Amino acid sequence: MSKIRSQHWLIILMIALLGINITYPTAVDVPRFNSNTYTSLLLTVWVALLYFGIRKKIVKKILKFDWVAGVIFASLYCATFVASNILNSNYLNSGINVLFNLLSWVSWIIVFSVTFAFIRTCFGTTIPKITGVPKGRCLWAILSIIWVVSIIYLLPGQISWDGLKQFCEFEGTHISQLGFTYSPTNHHPWFTTLFFGTLFNIGRSIFGVNFGIFTIVVTQFIISSIIYTYVIKYVWTTVGKIGGIITLALFASPIFSSYIATVDKSTLYYAFSAWFYLCFAKLYEGLNNKTWSYKDIFLYIFSATLAGLFRNDAFLIVIITTVLLIILTLRSKQKLFLALVSLVVILGIHLGWNVILTRDNVVKSSPSEALTIPIRQLSYVYMTDPDSFSKTELKTINKITPLSKIKENYDINNGDGLKSLYPSDTFLNSASIIKDVVSGKKTLNTTSNEKKETVDYLKLWLSAGIKHPKQYVKVYLGANSRYLNPFIMYEPGLFLNYYSSTPNSMPIFIKPSWYNEYHSLFNGHVREKGQQVLMMLTMFPPLAIVGNPATLLWIALLLLLILLKVKDWKGIVFLLPLLIMCMLFTVTSINGYTRYTIGALAASPIVISCLWKKRYDAYQMMKEK
């Protein structure tokens, strides 16, 4: 790139820097230019690095594809900010605000396009010489020591809200004040309930309640540390020391350590997600070899089964991934046979488990769990344009979400309020809902009539979506703004000092019979200081950026666009399970909740390093030619 053209780009980037400092405050009367000095400094450094890349000819050419990528990311950025303030449309109606939005959009297109060109050019071009890979036991020891230091103040371990509910279901806790006795449900996977309950009973029988909780924490610690050690070693072996150290730092951080000390179904799911993708990567890398080892197939099936059993929607990811594996092996009889066997075995295990659940009268999760986005979309149309529905359609809505309660329960960022209006409920997150179940106003097990009403509701949701597509898109973007835009407010949402053991601090309806015997090892002052230190580390910019729920989706989207540009179709197939994980975030109840994203975050170093190495090998072959 010539000196004159670089000077032109200096002017373009300076104007773009002004535009990307336009903000989207919740109150539209607030000045729209960024007043945060720290943020402005970071944006200035970003643009300066882009200009440096142009001057040093790292970025030699901005391709049409780069501009397409820029439009995609700029549109995500601006649209999610506008939609996040969904009940205020001034950003689209006020002339001056529309001009600000347009300048912001164009400026971000420029910045994102040059950034994508920069990343696309550098992706996979260099890998340090792989020497001196640490032994697995050394990496495990480092990770374990850091974890012990960071979680010791939480001992014997803490229990999440969901964890307490699972303990209540496991022991069949009776709440005399409410006249209610817990029964088994699959709202939180019943397999994990049995797993934790059994471990707790073993530990409790030895040294009491605290040791029962500690037994679960130790089990989580051992399983997770071993799996993450293998991931660290894989990355180190694949792309070198820098990647290995970054991955070690990621798993050693409070993002993961805070969950290790927490009794919750998610903790082991994160580890099993990483293990599953590690096994998938091993098979993917062996596609060009003559045979696959039976050990690798067994580990793939085992890890896939555990990932599917520890989170209900993970089974979908497991099945799609295995189908993709079958597609990749169509030209190899041996690999195709083993991939088909994997699918049959995984399906067989899950179908068999469902038979066991039915036999043991385990209540299935309420359909409302899968309806949080449709309910928010249809409810928004009802609130903004009630006259667009006929009397029959209003009756259909009223059966699922009583019309008189929609407005007071509507929250674009949290679907739990509307979800609780559904006629059946397995979440039971308040005493009033439990009273409704006891009195018969709500059901625990969804009836056939409720299922029919749900089908009618979904039909209406589809027809209303055809009439009001803009509103549906607006709600989807607003309800997922923190999953789709890493620049929107970041809330770490970690399990740090999640629940104390003070008996009176917890609602009566999630207290197992032994709860009053559960006590923290350290007092509240120590736990508070430990929490402050770990939270400070979590909010340190590099870790805060990596831990941001939307960062992961943007990384996956970046990888997809790079692979599309180089026409690496097999690489896209390898990336798809991670993309599906990211898309599943956007149909969950709480906007930007990190708890939903950490499983995919645990798998991301495997994906990035595998694709980086694959691109590097292709780049070297191209240079040799």
TrEMBL record:
Q: Where are the transmembrane segments?
A: 37-54, 66-87, 99-119, 139-156, 206-230, 242-261, 267-285, 297-330, 336-357, 543-564, 571-590, 596-612
Q: Which Pfam families match?
A: DUF6020
Q: Which InterPro entries match?
A: DUF6020
Q: Which keywords does this chain's UniProt record carry? A: Membrane, Transmembrane, Transmembrane helix
Source superkingdom: Bacteria
Q: Please report the name of this protein according to its UniProt entry.
A: DUF6020 family protein
Biological classification of the source:
Bacteria, Bacillati, Bacillota, Bacilli, Lactobacillales
